[in-house]
Design goal:
This protein has about 150 residues and is mostly helical. It contains seven helices and two strands, in the order ααββααααα. The protein has one domain. The two termini are about 15 Å apart. It binds zinc ion.
């Protein structure tokens, strides 16, 4: 409860930072391989969190939405600009053509949609902290103890 109270004192950009850190940790917990090329067991700087649609072009509602976040290598996410076309193709294989296109449309149309970002972020932070601790309980094998400590505090 106190965690939630403290969050209300933070600026939106501070909340975004916390939220993005949580997203990255969750994505690294769930996925191990690059979503858009054959690279496997990504680690450190090479373990990036990609958006199906560029993060900057997503609105507050979708920027931190786990449905569009997948693990990508540095090459795909940074050097190759996110590999959007391959990303979409793989998303179609994963969740179905219609669903993947609907998700992309949702991401595209989220930009500029007026929402209360602060309230949305605070809710997501709570949800993602719970999810991450659940993931940590079940897969307690990777070496990001430091990251886990941060979340526990
Ligand atoms: Zn890659």
């Amino acid at each position: 409860m106190t965690k939630i109270e403290n969050l209300h004192k933070k600026s939106v950009s501070q909340l975004e930072k916390i939220l993005w850190e949580l997203c990255k940790q969750i994505v690294r917990k769930i996925y191990k391989d690059c979503y858009t090329c054959p690279q496997k067991n990504l680690e450190g700087m090479n373990a990036q969190s990609g958006h199906m649609h560029p993060k900057g072009a997503c609105g507050a509602l979708m920027k931190y939405d786990l449905r569009i976040l997948r693990l990508q290598c540095f090459q795909c996410n940074i050097n190759h600009g996110g590999m959007g076309a391959t990303y979409l193709e793989n998303m179609k294989l994963e969740i179905g053509d219609k669903q993947a296109l609907a998700l992309l449309l949702e991401a595209q149309s989220s930009k500029g949609k007026p929402i209360k970002a602060r309230d949305h972020y605070i809710k997501l932070i709570g949800d993602y902290r719970k999810l991450l601790s659940k993931l940590n309980e079940t897969t307690n094998t990777t070496g990001n103890a430091e990251a886990r400590g941060k979340v526990a505090n």
